[in-house]
Structure formats: C-alpha cells, structure tokens
C-alpha cells in the first residue's frame, strides 16, 4: 500500500491538534509527498444576520478557516510546509464533497475519532462507508507512537489484503505485528458432538494450516494468535479486548470480509471498532 498523497480532515476542534501531531510522527517514517488539510463547511453560506455582527471582517469565512489551518501547519508540522496545503469545501453538500474527495485519488484519509471531545461521529461514518479510500481513524488518546500493530484475519481476500498492509506498516515502523483469528463454533450445527474442546481444536488446526500458507506467501515472521469466541459474543468486542490486553497501538482491518457470514464487514467489526467508546486507532483498508 503506497502512502504518498494523504488527506487529513479537520473540524476546527481540539481533535485537530491530535491529528496533526499523529501524522507528523508518521511522516517521519513515510515521508509523504503531499499532505492535504481539508475542512468541510456544513453550511451553504453564513446567514446575513451573523455576518452583520462582524462588519469589519476583511476576509470571507472560508478564507479565515484556511488561514487558521495554515497556522496549524506552521505550529504542528513546520517541516511539512513544502508538501502541505489546505482546502475548505463550501456549499454544505455532502455528496459534492465526497465526489471531490474521490477525484483527488488520495491514498489515505485521516479522521478524528472522538469520545471525550464532543462529536457525534455521523460525518466520519458516512466518509468510511461511501469513500473508496483507505481510512485511518485516530482516537483522541493516540500520540503517534506505534509499537504494536494488530490485524484480525478471516482468510478472505479483504482481510488478507489488510494483513499485507499491516505487515508493510509494521516493517516500515519497526513494530511488532500481531495477526489474530477468531473462531466461532455454532454448536447447533454439531448436535452429535459431545466434546466441544475437540471441535475447537479441529477448527484451530484448520486455521493454522491456512495461516501457514498465507504466512509463506507474504513472508510474515509473526505467529498468528487464535481465540474461540463465545456463541453469543461479537467478534469486534473480542478483537478490541485482545488489542487492549496486548497493548496494541493500531488495529488494521479489511473493509469487507466473509460475514454476515464471518463478521469482518464495515458496518459490523470495523464499524464497532471505530465507535466513540474505543480508544485504539483503526486503519480500515479498502481494496
């Protein structure tokens, strides 16, 4: 996955400082060729009654926002000034903004994932669903120091691609790679099996064979970790619990997997991992 042309979506909140610091750290390794700071104005235009309160303004609102973002570059990313630019999208039309984003051919879109900092997450949810670009969600607790990268796999094409991207990131950032595979056994399909542990072992052995083939293909040194899911549990919770237990700094997931079938769909695992109450940054890899 080549990362040279990236977009950072800013909303003029405290989250912007966190995003810029995070990307500044990543840039030390990736050396991005172009960094675009982007703000989407959700209103079509400022109401006249609001503008009348500021008769001495010599700039339009979008010009003031652009100036503020340029100042953020100078403050937080001074070494990136030559490759960084700003863009304020006016008009308040989400469809037009998404079309513009697609036409830019960004390699990565970076958004903030808010919890304590007020934010509904509706905008971010739309972006990740409708854009065909890989998306990095940075939590407000993130500081850019990445030591462990966890990647859940289900051996579908989508998660295999996520594993490849995670390996590339791990190699470049000199981090520990932690592949994980969750096994969910629905016992109602095996009514005559008395020994559940034996059945679990069977599925784990089958998964290990698949992983060894994938490991050889991608030249991965890391072992895969396997866990059995509770029948009534959701894989996203187990993944997040594992990531927390392992002190993972980044979770890499595919945007679509075998489920509603296996569960790694945006709208399922990925959607739950980027919910406001999760504090680990998540990279959602698109094909």
From TrEMBL:
Pfam families: Usp. Residues 147-286 form the UspA domain. InterPro entries: Rossmann-like_a/b/a_fold, Universal_stress_UspA, UspA. Belongs to the universal stress protein A family. PANTHER family: STRESS RESPONSE PROTEIN NHAX, UNIVERSAL STRESS PROTEIN MJ0577. This is Universal stress protein.
